[in-house]
Amino acid sequence: MTQYPHGPSLAISLAAIARNYTLLSRQLMSGRSGAVVKANAYGLGVAQIAPALLAAGCRDFFVATLEEGIYVRKILSTESVPSTVYVFHGARKGESKDFLAHNLIPVLNDRMQIACWNHAGPAALHIDTGMCRLGVTPEEAIAIAAEGQKFELLLSHLACADEPSHPKNNQQLAAFRAVIQHFPGTPASFANSSGIFLNSDYHYDIARPGCSLYGISPNTDLPNPMEHVATLSAPVLQYRTLTQDTDVGYSATARMKAGTVLATVELGYADGFHRALSNHAFGYAGDVRVPLIGRVSMDMVSVDVTQVPAHLHTPDMRIAFICEQQPVDVLAEAAGTIGYEIFTGMGNRVRRMYA
Amino acid sequence: MTQYPHGPSLAISLAAIARNYTLLSRQLMSGRSGAVVKANAYGLGVAQIAPALLAAGCRDFFVATLEEGIYVRKILSTESVPSTVYVFHGARKGESKDFLAHNLIPVLNDRMQIACWNHAGPAALHIDTGMCRLGVTPEEAIAIAAEGQKFELLLSHLACADEPSHPKNNQQLAAFRAVIQHFPGTPASFANSSGIFLNSDYHYDIARPGCSLYGISPNTDLPNPMEHVATLSAPVLQYRTLTQDTDVGYSATARMKAGTVLATVELGYADGFHRALSNHAFGYAGDVRVPLIGRVSMDMVSVDVTQVPAHLHTPDMRIAFICEQQPVDVLAEAAGTIGYEIFTGMGNRVRRMYA
Questions:
Q1: At B177, is the secondary structure helix, strand, or coil?
Q2: Nearest to B296 by CA among B270, B324, B334, B262
Q3: Shortest CA distance to A98 belongs to which of A129, A58, A67, A138?
Q4: Mean pLDDT across chain A
Q5: Inter-chain touch B238–A266, beta carbons under 8 Å
Q6: Does the pLDDT at position B219 exceed 60?
Q7: In B, which residues are within 8 Å of A251 by CB distance?
Q8: pLDDT at B16
Q9: Angle (nearest 5°) at CA B224 between B347 and B325
Q10: Residue B10, beta-bridge partner list
Q11: Quick one: which of A297, A272, A217 has its CA closest to A40?
C-alpha cells in the first residue's frame, strides 16, 4: 500500500512510462524511438524517468538546454548501457567544450550556431519545415549540404501533428523529404508523439515522443492509446459542515447552502493547480466526484464532499485531481490549457513518488 | 552592470522588498508588520528574502506548511536577531515535537488540531470570519475562550480586502472584533496586504502582508503604491527574417507577413510563462514593446522584433516580460490571472538573481 506524505503528491508509475515507451516503439514501422525528457521530464522527474526509459530500451534522449543535458548525463553515468543525449537549443558561443566534456550533441539551429560550433564534434541539424521557431530554412539546409557539412542527425518538428487532417502535416513532410535527400546516408528524426500516430511516412530513423510517454493523449480527436502515468492527490486539511448559507473563498465567488460539507484541500496554485480551475472543475474522493467550490487559493482549494459517506471524512482522506477517472487532459481542458502545461507546472511542494 | 545567465532569469531587488516592508510598516496606525513568506516567498526565494526582511525590521514570519517553517528557521538560524515563525496549516497529529524542536508556532484551525496539539507549546488560533477555508467558527472560538484556553495570537483572514467597498470587509471586521474580546490581552492579526490599506480599524497588532512586499498591487482599483521588485527576462535563441508569409508556432495560430523579424525567446510555459498569454501579450526589448506571436511553447515563445533597431538583434538581447514598463499585475491580467500565480508559478529553470 502506498504511503502518502503529509501534503500534495504526484504518484508516478515508471512501469507505465516503460509500457508507453514499448507501445510507441511497436507503433513505428521504421527506426527506433527516442524520448524527450526536457523540462525535468515534463515535470515528472528526469532523475527517475531517464534510467527507466533506458531500461525499457531507449537510447536517444532529447533535452532543451545544456544544463538539462549535463544533468541527464550525470543521471545516466552510472548505467552500463551507452546512450546519446541531444540538446535542442544548440550550443552557444563558448559552450563547445562543455558539450564535448559531457558527451552531448547540440542540435544546431542557425548559421551562427553552426559557425560557433565549427565542427567541434558530432552535431545535429534542425531544419524548420513549418514551425517558424528554431532551425535553418530548407534553402539554407540545402546550401549547407552543398558545402559538404556532415551531421549525426537531421531533425524537424511538426506544428499540427495532433490534428491528423491538418494540411500542414503533408506540407512539412514534403519539405523535410526534399531537404534530407541532400544529406544522403544521414539519419533523420521527424515524428513527435502525435507524428508517430500519423503514418509510417513520418517515422524515419528516430522518433521523439514526449507527452505520450507521460500519459498525455497524442491526439485531440481519438481515444487516448497511452496508459495513465501520474496521479495527483492532496490531503484534506479541514472539514466544515455549514450551519448557514455561506460564501466560500476569495471574493466570495461561491455561496453554499447550509448542510453542505466542505473539505479544504492542501493544494493551490503555488503547487501548479491552476487558478483557472476555480469554481468549475472536479476532484475525486475515491470514486465520488467532488466539485471545486470557490477560488483556488495559493495553498488550498475547497471541494464539496457532501456526497462522500461521512465515515470517510477523516484526516486520511485524499482528494485526487489527476487519476484514472480524470486524466490530465481532462483537468487541462477545464483549465483552458493542455496536459503538458499541467505537468510542467507542478510545484516543488508536490512530492513526486515513484512505483 | 548585471551579468545575466544564459537563460531565463528573475532579477529580484532585495532592497525594493525592504523598502516595501518599510512603506507598509509606516502605513500601520497600530501594531507592527510581519511578512508572509510561504510558497518560497511567493516563488521569489525565501532563503534570500527572509534575512532581508529581518534586516528591515520584520520579526514575524508566516508560512503555510511545517516543511516551509523548518526551512525558514534554518535560514534565520544564523541571524542574531530573534524572530517568530507561524505555520498557517497548523500541526497534524504527531507533529508537535517537530514544531517544538524548530521553535515554530502552529496556527490551530479546528477542534481536532487543538486536541492533537494539547497545549504542547505556544500556538495561535485561526478564527474564520468569512473565508470559509480554515479556522474555527466565531461560536467555536467563544466556546474555546470560555474553556480558558490561551493563545499567542488570534488570526483571521479577509476574503475581499482588495475591493475596499465590498460589504464583506466590514462584516468580517465586526465578527473578528466580537470574538477577540473574549480573549482579553491576546494579540490579534487581521490585515493582509490589502487590509493594511483599508483603514486603521483593520490593523491590530501584527499585519501579514505578502503580495505587496513583492511588488504586486494590494488594490485592484487604485495606483499601485508598491515598488517594482522582480524583473523577468530571457535571451533570444534565434532571429528570423521572414522571406514569405509564414505560419508561426503550434497549430499555426498566427500568420506573419514577409519582412517580419521574429525572435525566438528562451522562455516557455515550463518556466511558468503561461500558455494563456499566446498571441495576446507583450514583451519589452529595451523600451520597445514587442508582441507575442503564436502559441507559447514549453521552452520558447516568439516575439515580433521588427520595430527593434537591427543593430540590437544580437545574442545579447534579452526580452523582458515583467519589468517597470510591464508590472507583474499587467502580465497576469493578460494571462487571465493574478500576479500571485505568475510569481509562484515561476519554474526552476528561471534563475533567481538578487541585488
A1: helix
A2: B270
A3: A67
A4: 96
A5: no
A6: yes
A7: 159-160, 162-163, 166
A8: 98
A9: 60
A10: B232, B352
A11: A272
Q: What is the mean pLDDT of residues A337-354?
A: 98
Which residue in A223, A218, A191, A220 sits closest to A205, CA to CA? A191
Sign of CA pseudo-dihedral A80, A82, A88, A89: positive
Write the single-letter amino acid at A334. Answer: A
Sort residue A204 into left (φ over 0), alpha (ψ -120 to 50) or beta: left
What does the alpha-carbon distance between residue B211 and residue B217 come to, in Å, rounded to a whole number? Answer: 7
Q: Please state the length of chain B.
A: 355
d(CA B247, CA B132) in angstroms, rounded, equals 48
Write the single-letter amino acid at B154. Answer: L
ipTM: 0.97
* B interface test, pick of A95, A237, A280 with most B CB neighbours within 10 Å: A237
Distance CA A339, CA A328 (A): 5
Residue B254's alpha-carbon distances to B7, B245, B279, B303, in angstroms, are: 25, 10, 7, 11
Kindly report the length of chain A. Answer: 355
| Pairing status of strand B230-241 against strand A84-87 | unpaired
| CA–CA separation, B187 and B183 (whole Å) | 9
Calculate mean pLDDT across residues B66-76: 98
Can you spell out the DSSP letters for A168-207?
Answer: HHHHHHHHHHHHHTTSTT--EE---HHHHTT-GGGT-SEE
The Cα–Cα gap between B106 and B123 comes to: 5
Instruction: List all residues 6 or more positions away from A204 whose beta carbon is below 8 Å from its beta carbon.
Output: A30, A31, A187, A188, A189, A190, A191
Chain B touched by A264 (CB under 8 Å):
yes
By annotation, the residues of B acting in catalysis are 38, 250
State how far the alpha carbon of A11 is from the alpha carbons of A283, A334, A352, B66, B319, in Å.
Answer: 16, 21, 6, 21, 37
- Which cell numbers hold the place of B318? 534579452
Measured between alpha carbons, how far is A143 from A149 in angstroms, rounded to an integer?
A: 10
Dihedral of the alpha carbons of A296, A300, A305, A309, in degrees to the nearest 10: 160
A42: closest CA of chain B, how far (Å):
8
Contact A260, A270 (CB under 8 A): no
Chain A contact set for B294 (CB, 8 A) = 132
3-state DSSP of B294-351: CCCCCCCEEEECCCCCHHHCCCCCEEEEEECCECHHHHHHHCCCCHHHHHHCCCCCCE
DSSP string covering B3-70: ---SS-EEEE-HHHHHHHHHHHHHH-SSSEE-EE-HHHHHTT-HHHHHHHHHHTT--EEEESSHHHHH
Q: What distance in Å separates the CA atoms of residue A242 and residue A237, rounded to the nearest whole number?
A: 16
| Set of cell numbers at residue A225 | 492509446
Residue with cell 503604491: B225
Q: Which of B264, B270, B341 sits opposite A133 (nearest CB)?
A: B264
Backbone angles phi, psi at A96, to 5 degrees: -55, -45
Q: Is A288 helix (H, G, I), strand (E, B) or coil?
A: strand
For residue range A110-131, what is the model confidence (pLDDT) as tens digits?
999 999 999 999 999 999 999 9
